[in-house]
Amino acid sequence: MSSSKKSSDGKSSEIEEAVASLTMPFNKILLTSSDGESFEIDEAVARKFQIIAHMIEDDCAGKAIPIDNVTGDILSKIIEYAKKHVVEPDEDEDEEAKKKLDSWDAKFVEKLDLETIFKIILAANYLNFEGLLGFASQTVADYIKDKTPEEVREIFNIENDFTPEEEEAIRKENAWTFNG
Amino acid sequence: MKKRGRKSKKPEEKRDEYDPCSILPLELKTEILLKLLPKSIARLGFVSNHWSSIIRGQDFTNLYMSRSLAQPRLLFSVYRPNMQMQFFHSCSQEDPSSDHRRVSYTLSSDLRYWFSPPMGGLIFGRKGTKAIIGNPSTGQFVSLPRVKTQRKDIFSIFGYDPVNDLYKVLCMTVITKRGSQAFKWEDPMWEEPMSEEHQVFTLGPKQKWRMLECHYLHRHHSGSQGICRDGVLYYLASFKDKRSLMTFDLSSEDFNVAKLPEDYTLQQFGYLVNYSGKIAIVTQAYSGPMDLWVLEDASKEEWSKVAAVIPSITDIVGNDQIVIFSGILPTGEIILALLPTPKPPFFFLCYDPKEKNARKVVIEGIGEDSAAVNVFFDHVESHMVLSKVS
User: Fold this and answer.
1) Size of interface A-B (CB pairs under 8 A)
2) From the CA atom positions of chain B, what is the Rg in Å?
3) B106: which chain A residues are within 8 Å (Cβ-Cβ)?
4) Averaged in consecutive runs of 10 residues, what is the pLDDT profile of chain B (390 residues)?
5) What are phi and psi of A127, to 5 degrees?
6) How does strand B196-202 pair with strand B210-211?
7) φ and ψ of B329, to 5 deg
8) Of B33, B44, B388, which has the smallest distance from its Cβ to A152's Cβ?
9) Would A30 disulfide with which of A64, A90, B220, B282, CB 3.0-4.6 Å?
10) What pLDDT, on the 0 to 100 scale, is given for residue B10?
């Protein structure tokens, strides 16, 4: 993720960086997705991504950071979530705020299809964004927790690769999986 | 969450391309699985061979079990007579008010099993010669072949051998005399019947009860409870006319015997408990203080006394209540279960030996309908799916 990755000529990217730091207000960070989309965000928001927070600490974050593994559509969703979660309300101290945020979170994932959520999980893992990784993983878990194996296969388009004999054995022996 | 529209199946195309989940590396798939309850995880093993191999694989299993070990739970075995209902209720051991879960097991008849303390996530139940082993976190139980005996007095202990990763049950029986009982002092020829028909069962497909030789002539104490710790079974028995501690190594399947301390109350009234990871004997002369003798070294027969652990039971529960030492919380508090099972709401006591006071811990929803409740501690949640035995 070095700032010289983009151009073959090391010098011109240094100039780019210098220009960026002159034109960008203090404590704003520019993220660029793998497909060239740019996002300008507050440093506080960028710090939610541990991988960037470390770069800032180590003083090697230029003002423009390329995020090579994440496309623009996914990165924008992640940033949207990060902005909302810059400050996490304390459950005990501010129940109202926590409830509001939980409700926002629920609406946020409601609109997303499964493939997008998996891409978000992958990206959040890459960026080391604990909060979103945990939340997105929990969302998938909640979605599949009560589903029958058949339903899960349908959701994930998984082939049933058990032999008919194995299927029969499963059907006979595993009524307990469907108990309360 | 929106569901993706179903694409028409093209037989030549690889399945994986349409499976959104396949973009996730194993460690992220695992992250998701770890957020599920054991029953859901077990169920997902029936989705496909691939998922089954992940869930039953060594990596995921190790990860899951080490996480479970770090978060031991209290397990309540609840039996509701008249309703033929058996279920297992569990909660966090560190904070019994949190994280309550319930799994039911449907009884085929009004067969009430006596359940042993759970080991390594599984639990053993027996009624007469009928035996079952199961996972109280998923509700799956498998029947074992019947215990090989015609006798009624059967003694069993369930254990886990960590060396070989095996679950085993040890059984033995003793003749019970019907009709007029002859006692030592009445009949000089009377000999105490010894435990016989020692047999062991190892959990696994097509396994059978294997008869064992035991070179120590002893007589187990019927109705007492054996304990398993670190791959060794411990139980109290009469050996050479003296109450002794029998041990059975699950790995070598060898028996051994150790002396108990020379204390009359202990020899008459003691029962085995697990005390902070060590084997201990609790003695309690009626309403007097509860003493603890801890086994420091079985081979050297060394015991140390922790006296008056609970100074006076009657102060806490009154005269007509019996308390059973169930276990110790990480806080050092002693769990006392009450007999008979208290009327709803069900509760047990946590006694703090430092502060010398007890608090009630109430568990809602398990004491109703004359339920019989057993409390087990240090239960670890397991996602294990068991194969049929016979």
Assistant:
1) 106
2) 24
3) 179
4) 47 48 83 92 90 90 92 91 84 86 78 91 94 93 94 94 94 77 58 90 94 93 88 94 93 94 81 85 74 86 80 68 79 84 86 85 83 88 87
5) -80, -10
6) antiparallel
7) -80, 160
8) B44
9) A64
10) 44
Instruction: Kindly report, residue by residue over A37-52, the tens digit of the pLDDT.
Output: 999 998 889 999 999 8
As given in the structure block, the two tokens for residue B256 are: 């051994």
SS3 state at B276: coil
**Which tokens belong to B250?**
């699950």
Per-residue confidence (pLDDT) for residue B231, from 0 to 100:
95
Closest residue on chain A to B44 (Cα): A149
Smallest Cα–Cα separation from B250: which of B145, B119, B381? B119
Which pLDDT band, with edges at 50, 70 and 90, does A18 fall under?
Answer: low
pLDDT at position A6 over 50: no
* Identity of residue B196: E
Contact between A171 and A177 (Cβ < 8 Å) = no
| Residue A124 and residue A140 in contact, taking contact as beta carbons nearer than 8 Å | no
Which residues have C-beta within 8 Å of that of residue B57, sequence separation ≥ 6?
Answer: none
Separation of alpha carbons B230 and B157, rounded Å:
14
Q: For residue B172, what pLDDT is reported?
A: 96
- 3 state DSSP class of A17: helix
Query: What's residue A22's pLDDT?
Result: 58
Rounded Cα distance, A111 and B109, in Å: 48
Alpha helices (H) along chain B: 26-34, 38-44, 49-55, 58-70, 264-269, 313-317
- Cα B269 to chain centroid distance, Å, stands at 22
- Cβ-Cβ contacts under 8 Å, B37 against chain A: 145
Torsion of CA A16, A22, A28, A31, to 10 degrees: -10
Helix-strand-coil split of chain B, %, nearest 5: 15, 40, 45
